[in-house]
Amino acid sequence: MGAWTAIVLAGGRGTRMRSSRPKALHAVAGLPMVAHAADAARAAGGGLIIVTPPHCKAEIAAAVPGAECVEQPDPLGSGHALATALITLPPETKRILALNADAPLVRKETALALATLHEQRKATVTLLSCVMSAAAAQKVGLLQRGARGKAIGVAEPGDAPAPESGDVEVNVGVYAFEASWLRRALGELKPRPSGEYYVTDLVARAVADGRRVETHPAEDADEALGVNTREDLARAERAAQRRLRSAAMAGGATLLDPETTYFDAAAKLGEDVTVHPNTCFRGFSRVARGAEIGPNAQLRDAEVGPGSQVGQAVLEECVLGSGARVGPFSHVRRGSVLEDGAYVGSHAEIKASRIGAGASVGHFCYIGDAVVGAGANIGAGTVTCNFDGARKSETEIGEGAFIGSDTLLIAPVSVGARAVTGAGAVVNRDVPPDGRVAGVPARPLRAKRGAALASTEGGTSFG
Catalytic: which of 80, 118, 347, 363? Predict the structure, then answer.
């Protein structure tokens, strides 16, 4: 492959979306559409330029790191956007790959194949085409072919009566251009009655110049889905989900009900993962081999280790080690780590905490800003009281500690290894290793009477 520069055209107003958000920043499968287009554009290599409206240049730059963003002060159509970008390129630029930001389903492989064909055929213009039903193509430009089957132009909606039945060949909106010709042709491009300049008119311009025009057919009709309305956005999302589900199953995951399993583009499942219905994988979630997720689970930027089990729970920006378990209606929040074999019961919340290997956190617990040692047992209803209204404080629970049900741990506080707290204890002072405390506030139990107190004094049983 020779040197290429890719240009993503994202300068349109997107008025039909009826949104304060620029159209290019609306998401499909968890990524802004402009990011999908940029991924495909980068397939040809070389630099990447994105043409943006002035008011959202910073937002688009943040969505596509590493791209050069060029403002299109007056959005006068796709041809004007392309000319705006071309002005910024050095004279030695040889080849241009141009894509529309509102076509988020163009594959990298397709963009690369189109660029390769353009080089091999020494074409001036190469465009991506697709065959679809006439009913589905009412708002798409139709590819026009001459007597010998060569592409001679693109008829935009309204240019000519469109077929009402059968299949038609449409323009997808991905182009390869010879840069030296493109500079001259853009200067000669005529505005449409609307005052806008269309990239599609460059096809007929190349034919009129006696230049070589080639087409590359897209194998997947979904690649031709452009987004101009909310309904289009929903259609693109459904198509993206079909792809991602198929990819997950092809990679060895079992989706018990694919239609109710949802993915972001960056999420990945390992082999032999089992996914129950109504489960979502958002952001950069990763699920390792043999894990079981759902039903009704939500993962966002979560990492789940091999063989772990997650019920009807919410996991956000957290890490689960091998063989960890999270029960239903629990919430593992940002910054939390469950080490190998750790267990969290139902209706529990874990926030910015590390739960050691083999440790258990019972039902109806809140564990926040805490470190729980390996093998510790946290009884049902335990709360780490980590916030005093002004600052967050930490709780440390040692290895093998046994925290009785309904214990309140008033942070900052430390419970030593193998220490025990009685049910209902309010612990506001550090407990030494092997210590035993109970009561409100918690006080040490004498060794000789500890067992008796555990069974005879109200509220001091352990568990």
Answer: 363
